[in-house]
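Archive maintenance. Older records in this collection stored only the sequence; we are now back-filling the structure field for every entry so that each record is complete. The fields below show one back-filled record exactly as it appears after the update. Entries are processed alphabetically, and Sporulation initiation inhibitor protein Soj is next in the queue.

ARCHIVE ENTRY
Title: Sporulation initiation inhibitor protein Soj
Organism field: Clostridium novyi B str. ATCC 27606
Length field: 256
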Amino acid sequence: MGKVITVYNQKGGVTKTSFVLNVGAILANNGYKTLVVDLDMQANLTAGIGLLEYDYTSFDILTDKKFDINKAIYETKYDNLSIIPSNIELSKADTILNTTIGREVLLRRRLEVIKDNYDFIVVDTGPTLNLLAVNALTAADYLIIPLIPQYFSIIGLKDIMNTYEEVRDNLNEDLQLLGIALSMLDKRVKIGMETKKLLDDNFKGIVFETNISTDTQVIYSQDGRTPLIHFNKNSKALNDYINLTDEILRRLNNGK
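Back-filled structure field:
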C-alpha cells in the first residue's frame, strides 16, 4: 500500500510547493509511482509541474461525494509522476465542507480508493489552518514540516506541533511526524545558522540532516514549469533535494 505524506506549515513562503514538486519528481525519477496532490488554491504545484489543461481538480474530489477520483488524476510528461491539480475554485471548498458530515475525513476516504496504485502520494497544502489542511493531515501517514531558518518560523512551529497533536488525538492516531526540513539556508547568514542550531538542539533526530540551499535555479525552474531534476541537473538545490529524498526513504525504511 502506498504511503501518504503531507507537507504542511501554517506559514506561507516556506517552500512547501517547491518541496512537493521536487521531491515528488525525484521519487518518480527513481522509479516510484508517485501522485502529487495540489490542495492549495494558488495552484502553484499544478503550474510548476507544467499541467496546463485539466477539467477536474481537488475541489471536485472534496465537494462531490459521487465524483470518481480517477477523473481528477492527470499523468504528467514525466514517467511515474501524476497529479491531482487545483485552481482558484478551491477557495470555495472550506465553506462547502463546513456543512458536510464527515468533513475532516473526505480526502482520506478518497485516497483510500487509489492508495494501492501508488508508492507515494505527496500532498501540498495552503498556508493556513482550515478544513483543507485538516483533511490533508487526516489522510496522511506521515507529516513533513518545511521551515526556513528565521526566528518567526520557530515561533510558528509551536502552532504546527499543536495542530499535529490535535489531529493525532482526535482524527488520525497513526499520523507520524517524519521530519522537519530546512530550506533557503545560507551558511553566510548568522541568524540562519543560529536558528538551525536551535532546531537541532530542540528537535534532535527530527530535523533532517540535509538542508536545501538557496539557489536561483529553483525560481527559474518554477518559471519554466519544470521540476529541477528535469531543468538543471547541475543545480545545487537539486543535489540537496536528491539527498533529502534519500534521507526520507531511509527514515521510512527504518520505520521512523
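Update note: Residues 210 and 244 are 5 Å apart (CA to CA). The mean pLDDT is 92.
Entry marked complete.
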